[in-house]
Amino acid sequence: MVQIVLFLLLLNTSACCGFGFRGCSQNYPATNIMWCFNQNIANLSDVISMIPDNVTTINLSKNKIRVIPPGSFSQVLGLKNLDLSQNQLDSLKGGEFRGLVVLDLLNLTSNNISSIHSSVFEGLTRLRTLLLPFNRLATISPGIFNYLSAIHEVDLSLNMLKTFSCVESGGSSTLKRLHLFANYIQRVNVSCFPALEYIRLSNNSKLELQADVFASNPRLKFLLLQRVKVEALVGLSMDTKRNLSWVAFSLFLDKSPLTVCRVIEGMDQLNRIEVDLKGSRLPQHNSSLLNCSAPAVVIIMDANFGNVAHLSLGKGNTSGLYLINCGLKQISYTTFDGFQGLKTLQLNQNKIVVQQDAFKGLTDLTSLSFDRSKIRDIDPNWFVPLKKLTRLSLIKNEVLDLAPKVFSALTQLEQLYLQFNLLKYITKKPFSKLRKLTKLNLSLNIIDFIEEGSFQDLTSLRYLDLSGNHIKRLTPSILSGLVNLRTFVLYNNRLHFRSYESPFINLTSLQYLEMNYQGPGGRGIGDIGPHFFQGQRQLICVGIGHSILLNIHPDAFSPLVNLKQLYIAGVIMKTTNLSAVFSPLKRLKKLTLYRADLDTLPANLLPPDNALEVLKVQSNHLHTVDKMTLDALPRLRTLDITENPLTCTCENAWFKSWAIHNAHTQVPYLYNLQCDNDRRAAYLWQFNDKACSYEEVSLTLFITCSVMDVLFVCLCLAWHTQGPAIRYLLLILKAKLRGRRGAAGTKFQYDAFVSYSSKDEAWVMGQLVPSLERPAAGAQRLRLCLHHRDFRPGTAVLENIEAAIYSARHTICVVTRHFLRSEWCSVEFQLASLRLLCDGSDVLLLVFLEEIPQHCLSPYTRLRKIVRKKTYLLWPEKPEEQDAFWVRLRDALKDEEEEEEEGGRGGEAELARLIG
Fold it and tell me: What are the start and end residues of every segment in region (Disordered) (predicted)?
């Protein structure tokens, strides 16, 4: 009782603050952004009704929203960005976005929208971006753009449009970008969009363009027409061509009389060209694709060039050349002859053999890419002329090994990408002399060994990614030289450390360390000892966990005085002293303990005056939330406790109220938190905690105590006045529960139980027992139950009496004056009488050994005389009459069900009257 009172008093003390949203989470610290992504939301109104009015961005993508009720967003009138992509909307009937006068971006991608009412966008006077790709629009409603007075970009790609005419859909003086990619458009009219600068009409194979189709679009600069008949581009007016700066088209050289130069003829301001050659080969008579003035950026895709000795791409100052999936097999110094001014060269998706002098004349090259080109060996001679190269990419090749000092000629290199290769060892200092390298990516190889000093020259390196390898060991000698490293990614390796190691002691500038998933094929990360983070005073973010074995020493985090984010996941921390481990982290702002096998959180999780703002403890075994724990986190703004088996009991009543009503700490997805113990309240917010309040408990206790007092007094009075009868009734009920109730076909152990006074034992043993158990020849032998012979030793007397009566077909009462004066005989008689009341069995047979006056008979004896006169037998004094007595007694002991039923119906009412 004292504990309950103390708990109730705690409920009235000053509480922490909290709040939550239905199906959403506030993106702290950007509290104006709401994430409602992938929460199975179907009823939009329930979600929006709980969102604060100062929100400017809502992400409702990947839900199950079918309908947007009119005025759904009326309470978030300051909304600027709304994402409803990947839902199940099939139509927009009008009024859905009413009141969103400052909305800037509306994303309706990947729904099933087939119709949009013309007034849907009414009032969206500041909308700049409208995204409607991946829907089922076959037509555009008339005048739909008339309401969008500030629109800049519209995306209608991947719909079912056959025509597009701004005359019908409405014009706009502000629209600059229009995407109509992958429809079935045959005709287009964009004359009502005078500000149009960019239009994408690619993958509309039946599109026909009139020469003056863009005559009303003097600002048009970007025209994308891949997978469209190239004649549509060629036939455009000269005025249109003259303004274009970026054009993209498809051309199949093998079957078309046109050339690239013929297509771009008249495009005097062209700065970028993208040509999809659809698998074309170079003309045999001329290897030149561009024998005219070429733009600054040339992108050639999907060709079949083969071995090209000299690739002439026109005259001019081309600075960027992209040959993507062009079937190049070999390149040499003559391939790019004439491209002395080239700065960017991409040769992605080409199975090429690169000659040593392939880049001899490309001295101004700053970016070189060989992604997905099946390269196995990297020749150091390639890079000798590339003194200005700052970016080199060899992603997703088949590089097995790096030669010694392979990149040493690239003294200006800043970025090197070698992920998705087959590197197994890093030896012989391949990164020698790369003193300006700032970013190195070696992820997703099969590296299991790194030689000491391999990174010695990378003194400017800021980002190093070694994730997705098989690295088992890192030492200070291996990582020497990385004095300016800021970000170190070691995700998914096989690292294992001992308690005395300090692997990162030389990385004095390290700020971000990612070490999750250590152990597949290994022993796990092992021990994070007291010196593990020695020297890491600049470290602000650490991710560690998902390891087979992880032990954290209480002093492991002592050097991390500036740590702000700590992520620990997928490890067993049930026995870890969290208070000791986290005690140095006074500046920690975000702590994640995901799947850490935690049953509770200590009250002193972090040191006093901590700065924690976000605490995430998802997927643990927390049943309750300790108020003292949260009271010790005064700056907490987000508490994520999803996927825990919370109990809906009074222990969590304070937490429910705290999470719902206050406005300082958010509980993400509060209305999705389920109860673990109460099926009637599926969610925590539905738990009825009224009984847990002080007033309700007080009233309940008062009423309960009052009722119990009244019942106690009544029971005492009943016991005092009807004690024996109650005791006997309880015994009968106990017998019923044990299944001893007599029924048709029940087999009895005895034919009769004999109730008699010990002073009449001589007659019982001398006359009754011999005559019934050992009768003369020809008479039926009966089984009798006697006190001294058949009662079980060690069992209570009342239980023996009860068992004897219910295991015998009849009860014979040997009535004398001694019988009437015996208390035990009275008990036996009344218990046998109650059997009549409970199951209708009339089992009593009265045998009088002497004449007894009426006034001496007890009420029970008089009752039996009235109910069953034929069972009343008087022992005759004359010997000649005794044989007849035994015959009558034997007849009375026979199992006559009909007589018992008749006697039972009358006896039950009379017995009830007497006992009551």
Answer: 896-916
- On whether the CB atoms of residues 64 and 87 are closer than 8 A, the answer is yes
**What is the Cα–Cα distance from 244 to 355, expressed in whole angstroms?**
38
Cα 122 to Cα 68, 80, 117, 679, distances in angstroms? 15, 16, 10, 46
- In this structure, are residues 102 and 79 in contact, taking their beta carbons and an 8 Å threshold? yes
d(CA 26, CA 20) in angstroms, rounded, equals: 9
**Which residue type is seen at 128?**
R
d(CA 753, CA 825): 12
What does the alpha-carbon distance between residue 821 and residue 844 come to, in Å, rounded to a whole number? 19
Domains and CATH numbers, the chain: 251-391 (3.80.10), 750-891 (3.40.50.10140)
Return phi, psi of residue 323, to 5°. Answer: -115, 90
- Alpha-carbon gap, residue 306 to 284, rounded angstroms: 12
Half-sphere exposure of residue 183, counting CA atoms within 13 Å on the CB side? Answer: 27
- Cβ-Cβ contacts under 8 Å for 787 (sequence gap 6 or more): none
User: What are the average pLDDT values for consecutive 10-residue runs of the chain, which has 916 residues?
Assistant: 39 46 86 92 90 93 95 92 97 93 97 94 95 96 89 97 89 95 96 96 95 95 96 94 96 84 92 91 64 88 81 75 92 82 94 90 94 95 95 97 95 98 95 97 97 96 97 95 97 92 95 89 83 94 89 94 95 90 96 94 93 95 91 93 88 84 86 74 75 65 86 82 65 56 62 89 86 76 86 82 85 86 82 69 80 67 52 79 83 60 43 39
Do strands 844-848 and 872-874 pair parallel, antiparallel, or not at all (unpaired)? parallel
Distance CA 542, CA 561 (A): 13
**Residue with the two structure tokens 């947007």:** 68
Beta bridge partners of 416: 392, 440
Q: Which residues pair with 199 in a beta bridge?
A: 178, 223
Structure tokens at 219: 């600002």
Angle between helices 694-737 and 797-806 (to 10 degrees): 60
**Structure tokens given for 331:** 């390149």
Q: What is the reported pTM? A: 0.74
Structure tokens at 95: 């009024």
Residue 451 token pair: 């030689």
3-state secondary structure of 169: helix
Q: In 3-state terms, what secondary structure has residue 847?
A: strand
As to burial, measured by CB atoms within 10 angstroms (0-12 exposed, 13-18 middle, 19+ buried), residue 747 is exposed
Of 609, 605, 598, residue with least CA distance to 627: 605
10 Å CB burial of residue 789 (0-12, 13-18, 19+) is: exposed
- The residue to which tokens 């089922």 are assigned: 136
- Characterize the bridge pairing of strands 487-489 and 449-450: unpaired
Q: Taking Cα atoms as reference points, which of 637, 615, 665, 670 lies closest to residue 50?
A: 670
What is the rounded end-to-end Cα distance, in angstroms, of the chain? 40
